């Protein structure tokens, strides 16, 4: 299992357990998150760019992976991703660089896996 498969499998498994708790607050938060990234005045691609930049500045590797996956699904290309990376690095400073490295690695995996599906 590669890094993408591991991340997605773990996320799915744990989300199922979390939702099985039937906690109203958690369910509402998850729903709010889902609806926030749905198309509206801003398209999904733009929202994912914002989510990715914020995740990088906040230094949340799981969030970065999630938004990279969603950005890939939304049709972003390498040039666009690197512009988001540059914005996040400027805003967050040098402490973002280790997360930038892992983000580049994960993006390359997404591109490699996507080419297999074509």
UniProtKB/TrEMBL annotation:
UniProt lineage: Bacteria, Pseudomonadati, Bacteroidota, Cytophagia, Cytophagales
Pfam annotation, one family: CMD
Ranges for domain Carboxymuconolactone decarboxylase-like: 27-105
SUPFAM superfamilies the UniProt entry points to: AhpD-like (SSF69118)
Protein name, UniProt field: Carboxymuconolactone decarboxylase family protein
Gene3D superfamilies, A to Z: AhpD-like
The organism's place on the tree of life at top rank: Bacteria
């Amino acid at each position: 299992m590669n890094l993408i498969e591991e991340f997605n499998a773990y996320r799915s498994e744990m989300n199922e357990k979390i939702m099985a708790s039937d906690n109203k607050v958690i369910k509402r938060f998850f729903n709010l998150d889902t609806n926030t990234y749905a198309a509206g005045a801003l398209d999904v691609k733009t929202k994912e760019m914002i989510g990715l930049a914020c995740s990088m500045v906040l230094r949340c590797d799981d969030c970065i992976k999630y938004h990279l996956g969603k950005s890939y699904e939304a049709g972003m290309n390498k040039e666009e991703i690197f512009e988001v990376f540059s914005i996040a690095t400027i805003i967050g400073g040098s402490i973002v660089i280790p997360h930038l490295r892992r983000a580049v690695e994960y993006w390359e995996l997404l591109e490699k896996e996507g080419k297999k599906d074509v």
